[in-house]
């Protein structure tokens, strides 16, 4: 059995207010091309199809067309909701998905059997997959109410709830030794390396679970949520496929990819990472204005989106000077080394009995913005308003 594992598309994500629709379409087109070339039996999309819970009509069109194109390769397609997705909204698309031959799971339902998906490959090999969409902490106990819970079980941790839920679903799903046992979920595993653009609240604190939550008789566990492709240690093969596109500058070192898996009911899963072309690179530059100007002259035109840390004291017009050198700079910041240290910032001046221009001047000094032009501009505006 051949499986293509992908996740974290984040369609609709903007970068510093810049639409990346064209890049997202190109990235998903590359995923479809790999599916056409590799001819998998099953394609698993492990959550975060969208970037926001209320996606635009354009984002919805992109995702539904991508899923349809993947289905058109002849593979069976299974997609689950991630923490960025609106599970109820995805479930509302299930009538369309069923008609298109696509398996879509948005929320944990009251029927455990709804999360056990089965199929047969073109060569007649049977498979079953436990499909678990993202589950928030407050709904973890509610999801387990489909089973009998003791009081102690109800008060257990998020990881305990997930382990119990997966174990009971796997007990029903993984009964036939001649069937390939799969599990897909959208969550954080302890020891996983974050890609840089994930939502921290759903990656840390009580949301990280140990790899022991996964049933040991699973042949392959296809995860979404962490954006860097990686294999995690465990009693069964556990992988994150990585995102097909870097969602922000924190992911500029990531290599966009999908994972191809070959497995049978009698053999271990053999997985390999298939890298995708980088549609538009994300880069970070640092230096003084003079150094940045030299880099711009040496590099010439660059199609990358840029984040620039300028090693100059903050002053009026600095952003515009950098923007003139790098029109594709979406984020421009003063290098932290040029700002006053925390001890200096903590010493706030006396405010009472002082004029607004004096207070504004002190504020600029406190923030490390010693700029005469900015002070003069404030003085002139304040005089006009006060007069």
UniProtKB/TrEMBL annotation:
Domain Nuclease SbcCD subunit D C-terminal: 280-366
Pfam families: Metallophos, SbcD_C
Signal peptide start-end: none
Keywords, ordered alphabetically: DNA recombination, DNA replication, Endonuclease, Exonuclease, Hydrolase, Nuclease
Entry-linked Gene3D superfamilies: 3.60.21.10
SUPFAM superfamilies: Metallo-dependent phosphatases
Domain of life: Bacteria
GO molecular function: 3'-5' exonuclease activity; endonuclease activity
Residue ranges occupied by any Calcineurin-like phosphoesterase domain in the UniProt entry: 1-90
Classification via InterPro entries: Calcineurin-like_PHP, DNA_Repair-Maintenance_Comp, Metallo-depent_PP-like, Mre11_N, SbcD, SbcD_C
Example of a GO biological process term: DNA replication
Oligomer status and interactors: Heterodimer of SbcC and SbcD.
Family affiliation: Belongs to the SbcD family.
Free-text function comment from the UniProt entry: SbcCD cleaves DNA hairpin structures. These structures can inhibit DNA replication and are intermediates in certain DNA recombination reactions. The complex acts as a 3'->5' double strand exonuclease that can open hairpins. It also has a 5' single-strand endonuclease activity.
Protein name listed in UniProt: Nuclease SbcCD subunit D
Species in which this protein is naturally found: Catellatospora methionotrophica
């Amino acid at each position: 059995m051949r499986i293509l594992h992908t996740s974290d598309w984040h369609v609709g994500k903007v970068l510093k207010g810049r639409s990346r629709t064209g890049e997202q379409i190109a990235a998903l087109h590359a995923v479809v091309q790999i599916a056409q070339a590799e001819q998998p039996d099953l394609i698993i999309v492990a959550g975060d199809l969208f970037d926001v819970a209320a996606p635009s009509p354009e984002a919805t069109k992109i995702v539904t067309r991508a899923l349809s194109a993947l289905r058109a390769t002849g593979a069976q397609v299974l997609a689950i909701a991630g923490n960025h997705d609106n599970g109820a909204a995805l479930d509302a698309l299930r009538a369309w998905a069923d008609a298109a031959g696509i398996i879509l799971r948005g929320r944990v339902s009251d029927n455990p059997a709804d999360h056990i998906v089965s199929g047969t490959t073109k060569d007649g090999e049977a498979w079953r997959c436990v499909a678990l969409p993202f589950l928030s902490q407050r709904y973890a106990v509610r999801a387990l109410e489909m089973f009998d819970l003791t009081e102690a079980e109800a008060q257990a941790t998020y990881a305990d709830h997930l382990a119990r839920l997966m174990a009971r679903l796997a007990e029903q799903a993984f009964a036939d030794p001649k069937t390939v046992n799969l599990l897909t979920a959208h969550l954080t595993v302890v020891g996983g390396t974050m890609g840089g653009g994930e939502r921290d609240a759903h990656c840390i604190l009580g949301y990280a679970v140990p790899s022991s939550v996964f049933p040991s008789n699973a042949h392959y566990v296809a995860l979404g949520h962490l954006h860097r492709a990686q294999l995690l240690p465990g009693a069964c093969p556990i992988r994150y496929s990585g995102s097909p596109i870097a969602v922000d500058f924190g992911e500029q070192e990531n290599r966009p990819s999908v994972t191809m898996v070959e497995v049978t009911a009698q053999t271990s899963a053999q997985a390999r990472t298939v890298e995708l072309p980088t549609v538009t690179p994300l880069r970070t530059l640092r230096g003084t204005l003079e150094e940045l100007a030299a880099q711009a002259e040496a590099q010439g035109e660059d199609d990358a989106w840029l984040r620039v840390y300028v090693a100059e004291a903050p002053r009026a017009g600095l952003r515009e000077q950098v923007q003139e050198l790098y029109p594709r700079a979406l984020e421009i910041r003063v290098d932290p080394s040029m700002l006053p240290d925390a001890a200096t910032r903590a010493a706030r001046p006396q405010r009472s009995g002082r004029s607004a221009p004096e207070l504004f001047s002190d504020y600029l000094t406190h923030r490390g913005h010693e700029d005469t032009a900015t002070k003069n501009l404030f003085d002139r505006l304040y005089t006009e308003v006060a007069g």
